[in-house]
Write a structure and sequence with these properties.
This protein is mainly β. The chain has helices at residues 60-63, 124-139, and strands spanning 4-6, 12-16, 22-26, 29-32, 46-53, 75-88, 93-97, 100-104, 108-123. A hairpin with a 4-residue loop joins strand 6 and strand 7 (93-97).
Length: 140
């Protein structure tokens, strides 16, 4: 079953790893490439992040006070395990699950359905500001 979500421009938002088109398939190596997978132009230095998130975690309260009460950093990543629901400022939602490659544009929040291990690549300045805001909310 193909689980692919696209954005308004037709770019991929998330896709299961088995549905990513194979570009190289030789003995001992398979390379898959999802094209049109977000635009990092102007993103600056990227940070690599690894998140371990417990089921039931909802970061929305920690984002209150940011523009639109949402994370303003885009993320490219891979769901190792678990399931999360991403809610965008326009009210749309999408579910990302284990073994899916994803792009989350700026303007989102995340709720964890099942314990999740997630790898993210994010503009480090913007996401650093969001994490600092979340830490301040946790400390208050």
């Amino acid at each position: 079953m193909v689980v692919t979500t696209t954005d308004e421009q037709g770019g991929i938002m998330h896709i299961t790893r088995h549905d990513i088109p194979v570009r190289i398939d030789v003995a001992g190596a398979t390379a898959r490439q999802a094209k049109d997978f977000g635009d990092a132009t102007g993103a600056g230095t990227m940070g690599g992040e690894y998140f371990s998130l417990a089921g039931g975690t909802d970061i929305a309260p920690l984002l209150e006070g940011l523009d639109d009460d949402a994370c303003h950093a885009p993320h490219w990543g891979y769901m190792l395990t678990g399931t999360v629901v991403v809610t965008y400022t326009d009210g749309t939602e999408e579910t990302c699950a284990a073994e899916e490659l994803f792009f989350w544009p700026a303007g989102h929040s995340v709720r964890v359905v099942d314990d999740a291990e997630v790898i993210l690549f994010s503009p480090q300045v913007e996401h650093g500001q969001v994490i600092d805001h979340m830490l301040a909310r946790l400390a208050s």
